[in-house]
From TrEMBL:
Its EC number is 2.3.1.225. Pfam families: DHHC. The keyword Membrane applies. This is Palmitoyltransferase. It catalyses: L-cysteinyl-[protein] + hexadecanoyl-CoA = S-hexadecanoyl-L-cysteinyl-[protein] + CoA. It is a multi-pass membrane protein. GO terms for molecular function: protein-cysteine S-palmitoyltransferase activity. It comes from the Eukaryota. It comes from Cirrhinus molitorella (mud carp). Belongs to the DHHC palmitoyltransferase family. Keywords: Acyltransferase, Membrane, Transferase, Transmembrane, Transmembrane helix.
Length: 264
């Protein structure tokens, strides 16, 4: 699997993605150190809970890395336009380059992106045709990890048995209440924000409308709607649903129908 890294030079984007990484590091260190590993060592919880948390954390940060470094669909400087598709291309009035319809010029990145949905500062990258599936995975696994964290925070407060062998002089133990409250606050913010974003993204995919098109009212429907399986398979580049959840792979374009949408 050959993966090309794509980096955007944007200090504001670096700051935003640093905040996201801080939240991930905070909970990925705190929850195992304060909750999972001590209770597992005393036999209060099974090892499956520990493994599942680390797996959710790994998938979340992997999706973040892939979404932030994957090429979103940047157009080449001198694209070769097939003769049969010339009617589906247009000239960008900002960079004076030919681009497929439904592409958009990102002022933050300085280039056109195929089927651009939006520019996301939290991943310091555009969300376009080639990395939209990774952005969906990031939203999904962030919800899973945040909800898992909130459940463990609640159990630490009200359900788990008291620990008998802990070092009361340890910083994490002495400030347990404040640290768990911080974890709960960040978990609620991340879960609420990502749930709303994930819902709007899936809704847009099923309606075959990007965020930019929805805000600008650029497109209208022509032809029948696709099924949800066809819409999601086109975004993820495969019909195999199990592969929709794996960030450790490459994506190939998948066209399932010939019906397209055009500019008004």
């Amino acid at each position: 699997m050959k993966l090309r890294l794509h980096f955007v030079v944007d200090p504001m984007g670096w700051f935003c993605i640093s905040m996201v990484l801080f939240v991930w590091l905070y909970n990925s260190f705190l929850i195992p150190t304060l909750v999972l590993l001590p209770h597992y060592s005393e036999g209060h919880i099974p090892s499956a809970l520990v493994v599942c948390y680390y797996l959710a954390s790994l998938l979340c940060v992997s999706a973040l890395f892939r979404a932030s470094t994957a090429d979103p669909g940047k157009l080449a400087q001198d694209p070769k336009i097939p003769l049969a598709e010339r009617d589906n291309w247009e000239l960008c009035n900002k960079c004076n380059m030919m681009r497929p319809k439904r592409s958009h010029h990102c002022s933050r990145c300085g280039h056109c992106v195929r089927r651009m949905d939006h520019h996301c500062p939290w991943i310091n990258n555009c969300v376009g045709e080639d990395n939209h599936w990774l952005f969906l995975q990031l939203c999904f696994y962030t919800q899973v990890l945040s909800l898992y964290t909130l459940v463990l925070d609640f159990c630490q407060y009200y359900y788990f048995q008291p620990l008998s062998s802990v070092d009361r002089a340890d910083f994490v133990v002495r400030h347990e209440l404040a640290l768990l409250r911080g974890s709960c606050f960040m978990g609620l913010i991340m879960f609420g924000g990502m749930s709303s974003l994930f819902y709007t993204q899936v809704k847009g995919i099923l309606a075959d409308t990007t965020t930019i098109e929805k805000m600008s009212h650029l497109l209208e429907d022509i032809g029948p709607r696709r099924s949800w399986q066809q819409a999601m398979a086109e975004v993820f580049g495969t019909r195999w649903k199990i592969l929709w959840f794996l960030p450790f792979r490459s994506r190939q374009p998948l066209r399932l129908n010939l019906t397209s949408r055009s500019h008004v």
